[in-house]
Design a protein that fits this description.
It comes from Desulfotignum phosphitoxidans DSM 13687. Residues 90-119, 124-153 form the 4Fe-4S ferredoxin-type domain. Keywords: 4Fe-4S, Iron, Iron-sulfur, Metal-binding. One of its GO terms (molecular function) is metal ion binding. By secondary structure, the protein is of the alpha/beta class. It has two domains: 2-89 and 152-213, Sulfite Reductase Hemoprotein, domain 1, CATH 3.30.413; 91-151, Alpha-Beta Plaits (2-Layer Sandwich). Helix content is 27%, strand content 22%. A six-stranded mixed beta sheet has the order 1-2-3-4-7-8. The chain has a two-stranded antiparallel sheet with strand order 5-6. Helix 1 (32-44) packs parallel to helix 5. The structure holds iron/sulfur cluster (SF4) (3 copies). One iron/sulfur cluster (SF4) is lined by residues 92, 108-109, 111, 113-114, 128, 133-139.
Length: 215
């Protein structure tokens, strides 16, 4: 596993993580355990051996299967341009605890997704626009009275991203996914990749639609 920007020998695959585990205050949901599990999966699937035989022993950096994980939607490690990208996320919701009207959540939200409205008894309550919300969980962290609380935590899964001569941004699967669901999804992608890839083709080059891989 490598940190973003760190150089490594060409092995046939790469699992990169962001700096969330080094104390970044923006972590929504840590991907550290997942990164270790996915590294194990890639080793178990013998991706280096597979690529070696499909490239006549000449594995180049552009052949490598890349899995990139970020602990929040800021996505510093750039999962959108990886074969498989994972982003930790938290969905905020409004709980029963009274809102003090402190405005901390409104100030904190990078996406202007929260506003305060007046209640019938003269108090304030937050309203979240889920079309704008990026599920970073920062509003939940700053709410002093736990009016805002996490209603769901999970991982976003993005498939088929790459840079190179024909770049494309990854396609996101709907919803948030548990650790085990991510592992199962990656296993399916690896099987699809090993069945269809020829001459060092990336997963990203094989991928065009989600239902094609999960038929
Ligand atoms: S992706 Fe989020 S948690 Fe990871 S280093 Fe960037 S800001 Fe921090
Ligand atoms: S979770 Fe959504 S509403 Fe809360 S700070 Fe992040 S983007 Fe804004
Ligand atoms: S929801 Fe929480 S952070 Fe937002 S104004 Fe109310 S008490 Fe403050």
């Amino acid at each position: 596993m490598t940190k973003t920007g760190q150089k490594k020998p060409v092995t046939g695959y790469d699992v990169s993580v962001c700096f969330g585990s080094k104390g970044c205050p923006h972590v929504a949901l840590s991907t550290a355990d997942l990164a270790r599990k996915l590294t194990f999966l890639l080793t178990q699937a013998d991706i280096p051996g597979f690529l070696k035989s499909s490239t006549n022993g000449k594995i180049r950096p552009h052949h490598e299967l890349r899995i990139v994980l970020s602990d929040c939607p800021n996505a510093c490690s750039r999962p959108q341009i990886a074969d498989i990208g994972i982003i930790g996320a938290v969905v905020p919701g409004v709980g029963d605890a009274a809102c003090t009207g402190c405005n901390a959540c409104v100030r904190k939200c990078p996406d202007r997704a929260i506003r305060l409205t007046d209640t019938s008894d003269g108090n304030k309550t937050p309203v979240i626009d889920m079309n704008l919300c990026q599920r970073c969980g920062q509003c939940v962290h700053v709410c002093p009275g736990r009016t805002l609380e996490p209603v769901q935590s999970g991982f976003r899964i993005l498939l088929g991203g790459r840079l190179g001569r024909h770049p494309r941004l990854a396609t996101e699967m709907p919803g948030l996914h548990s650790h085990d669901q991510v592992v199962a999804t990656v296993e399916t992608c690896l099987n699809y990749y090993k069945t269809h890839s020829r001459n060092g083709q990336r997963f990203s080059h094989l991928f065009s639609r989600i239902d094609q891989v999960f038929a």
